[in-house]
């Protein structure tokens, strides 16, 4: 096969071996020699491969990448490449205030500059915790040099008193027990700690396992890579293989735009329904797609994904955890099932292996039918997202696979109106307001109410926080009401089992319909027609809008950092991928913009 190496000079050689500009070559060379790389290595024409390192003490979910990078490096060298590892801005969902989502676009910007402005021919994207995956895929898309993703892998299964204790899910369940005074604070913390038994990210089908599975479904990481738990020996082995493969990809000039096509995104949407993926996935994949100029909307998620059944029995929709998923066949098992049933829209889509999805998974199989079900006996039929619209918002997502029997009986069982519910709205301006007032008897909250939280989107929060899964008042939990309908312009943890209506776009801070809602208004949600409306007439809505605009619009907290202000001024809404609007006009810049100018 004719390779790039045979036909053209590598990008990195424009830094290290440019006879047209000896002065700059010397300047570029000498400083990279100073830690021991030899001139021969830098001028040999060997691909220089970046490892975009997301692991650090601030990012515990990705921290194991610091170890795994050694195996990646071995693979790169074994395949004839040279490795340059560098840090990515930390994004830890459970650590960063006000929310790690604020930082996704910041990490993206930093990585675009690093990939474009340094002598890199290819890059290994060390993905893991929720936003690290989209931030890195978005940057690789914008720059469009050969890139391969490597998951850090989930934590081992958590156990508490003989039961699986899953990341996030165990905390949301225990929080209810704490509110109902069934456990005390010490036991609550013990349960939370038990759910995090090792290095790695959430062991549930939270946003991390979702996004890592979808990175494989998109074709951006080696087949079988997503589900291997972080501490397993196979994780080190696939890291080595990933390092080897990226060197070959540089020679083949196999780029993100060749792989992340519309066909790949369609496959990922279908995979997301089958795995019971997080409601964060549409935000992030729509965002990645925009950086590639691929059209992808929440209507696509409903059209392609809603009919697909839930096959993977992982918490929060099911019972098992990450080790079980890996043992049962992981993403290859799910793809074997999807392809076998003729439900994968594009089996011919190209992947990082240089082969198609169908070729990659030709020998894949499911080895535990309890964990990965067959199409004939799924966990839930029609398990994808519904994209709701109305005068409350233009788009909001609801994950139907987590509608519990309790929720269905209480809210979706009217024989005359089986897929709709209606209730009195209780409106909270942000999570602090919710925590302060949820148990206030004056609100007279009963199980016929709908809880609404606003001011929690990309502009309002800022960043868009995981605060929509609100639990009912303690008095109702004690009476056995464990979940109520929730609506919000924020996000929700992928580990939450609440069928909230979330990611509402436009958000209240952008003057979406939620800004006009008042406590006491009646709200109606109809899943069959996909609508969500405040039951007041248009004239009244227009009056409220005019009054709010006259008062200066929907109020949100002041900026606390420069980045909060900058991002607020240019961020798009959740349904549009929460991307920075000015960034999406920069497409495939390694090809369209040439090289950056010399620096001296
Ligand atoms: C559990 C977390 C931190 O909320 C996140 O990983 C998610 O699943 O959304």
UniProtKB/TrEMBL annotation:
<keyword id="KW-0456">Lyase</keyword>
<keyword id="KW-0479">Metal-binding</keyword>
<keyword id="KW-0411">Iron-sulfur</keyword>
<dbReference type="InterPro" id="IPR020558">
    <property type="entry name" value="DiOHA_6PGluconate_deHydtase_CS"/>
</dbReference>
<protein>
    <submittedName>
        <fullName>Dihydroxy-acid dehydratase</fullName>
        <ecNumber>4.2.1.9</ecNumber>
    </submittedName>
</protein>
<dbReference type="Pfam" id="PF24877">
    <property type="entry name" value="ILV_EDD_C"/>
</dbReference>
<dbReference type="InterPro" id="IPR052352">
    <property type="entry name" value="Sugar_Degrad_Dehydratases"/>
</dbReference>
<feature type="domain" description="Dihydroxy-acid/6-phosphogluconate dehydratase N-terminal">
    <location>
        <begin position="46"/>
        <end position="360"/>
    </location>
</feature>
<dbReference type="GO" id="GO:0046872">
    <property type="term" value="F:metal ion binding"/>
</dbReference>
<dbReference type="Pfam" id="PF00920">
    <property type="entry name" value="ILVD_EDD_N"/>
</dbReference>
<dbReference type="InterPro" id="IPR056740">
    <property type="entry name" value="ILV_EDD_C"/>
</dbReference>
<keyword id="KW-0408">Iron</keyword>
<dbReference type="InterPro" id="IPR037237">
    <property type="entry name" value="IlvD/EDD_N"/>
</dbReference>
<dbReference type="InterPro" id="IPR000581">
    <property type="entry name" value="ILV_EDD_N"/>
</dbReference>
<feature type="domain" description="Dihydroxy-acid/6-phosphogluconate dehydratase C-terminal">
    <location>
        <begin position="370"/>
        <end position="577"/>
    </location>
</feature>
<dbReference type="GO" id="GO:0004160">
    <property type="term" value="F:dihydroxy-acid dehydratase activity"/>
</dbReference>
<dbReference type="GO" id="GO:0051536">
    <property type="term" value="F:iron-sulfur cluster binding"/>
</dbReference>
<dbReference type="InterPro" id="IPR042096">
    <property type="entry name" value="Dihydro-acid_dehy_C"/>
</dbReference>
<comment type="similarity">
    <text>Belongs to the IlvD/Edd family.</text>
</comment>
